[in-house]
Amino acid sequence: MSLADQLFIDNCKQILSQGTWDTDQVVRPRWEDGSPAHTIKCFGLVNRYDLKKEFPIQTIRRMYFKSAVDELLWIWQKKSNNVHDLSSHVWDAWADESGSIGKAYGYQLAVKHHYPEGDMDQVDRVLYDLKHNPASRRILTNLYNHHDLSEMALYPCAYSMTFNVTGKTLNAVLNQRSQDMLTANGWNVMQYAALVHFFAQVSGLEAGELIHVIADAHIYDRHVPIVEEIIARTPFEAPKLRLDPAVTNFYDFTPDSVKLEGYRCHPLDQAIPVAV
Hints:
Strand order of the largest sheet: 1-2-8-7-6-5
Largest sheet: 6 strands, mixed
Radius of gyration: 19 Å
Number of helices: 6
Structural class: alpha+beta
Distance between the termini: 33 Å
Shape: globular
């Protein structure tokens, strides 16, 4: 059984059985028909994924891994905030007429800062330190810049990554302020697990643990029946992740640099309504 499946099932069962509904509050998200999109939530879920043992991708529903990697590279490699640079359409609802999502995500990672070693943006600073200062406890990124929030189409959900090297192992903590469990949990977990593998390979390290901290883990009202169906399924074994061993520069990774060997999954036979 895939650990990603088991943690997702456990999380959703906890939310559905112990969570709190916000139906007595005014909420921002709306369904396509204009109705308020209410949620049931739990606060402060923490999940640990051992990337040495398996790659954390859900098998109880089909996950589009290469599309997730494409979005990850759009943010972390291209450092773009324009949907025209993205192959999928997951951000279209948040983009303006020019395709921009404002000063969010990739924009924040691309801002350069001055250091004694030279001018670097957040990604290049992490890559530099992983190679030259692996004992540092300051290797992190942060997208939640209060100065720019008013110019973001959406405040960052997954907003911070903290990297830590122990011996020759690269571990990381992903902090997330808000998590739509059905549409985003499996997507974000496999994305940031891939990022740890990418950074480890180009830094001469081995991927270790990914710890995912979720402040507000929620299930939308119209998602409850779909979640209940999915978590009742029997998971398959986790697949094996293979990276192109020839890639030694983070900026050379593409979605075709990754392969999942032995990925088996259940289909998702119904459309998932999305709240915006």
